[in-house]
């Protein structure tokens, strides 16, 4: 009987682990490096560092990030900007390390480029404008 109880406990614990693994993990982002600050969003889904924007909430599941409005977060073709768009499936390839460091396709280096708008900076995976600097993104818990 003791073996049956242990088996049942292991089965329930294993089932809970499976549910937890597939559940989305939600977080806020902050940047450090050339600029330091929290990541907020414009109404159109552009992710920006600093300025008067409230911290944005994101969720990751299976390597894909969505924002609190359900928009898919992508790396835009061409300019490689990190933003979240309506009606677009989220890009895969994102991960969050044990220390909260965000990576895209295994690379933890991102770039900020100043917008000239309220001290805000857009986020890119490659430097693509003027006044750009290297940053690291971290997720909180």
UniProtKB/TrEMBL annotation:
InterPro entries: PIR1-like_C. Keywords: Signal. It comes from the Eukaryota. Residues 63-135 form the Cell wall mannoprotein PIR1-like C-terminal domain. Residues 1-17 form the signal peptide. This is Cell wall mannoprotein PIR1-like C-terminal domain-containing protein.
């Amino acid at each position: 009987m003791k073996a049956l109880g242990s088996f049942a406990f292991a089965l329930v614990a294993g089932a809970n682990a499976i549910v937890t693994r597939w559940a989305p993990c939600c977080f806020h982002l902050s940047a450090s490096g050339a600029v330091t600050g929290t990541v907020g969003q414009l109404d159109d889904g552009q992710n920006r560092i600093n300025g008067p924007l409230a911290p944005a909430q994101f969720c990751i599941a299976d390597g894909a990030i969505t924002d609190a409005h359900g928009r898919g977060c992508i790396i835009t073709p061409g300019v490689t900007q990190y933003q979240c768009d309506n009606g677009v499936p989220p890009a895969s390839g994102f991960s969050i390390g044990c220390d909260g460091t965000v990576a895209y396709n295994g690379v933890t280096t991102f770039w900020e480029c100043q917008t000239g708008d309220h001290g805000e900076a857009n986020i890119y995976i490659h430097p693509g404008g003027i006044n750009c600097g290297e940053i690291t993104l971290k997720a909180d818990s």
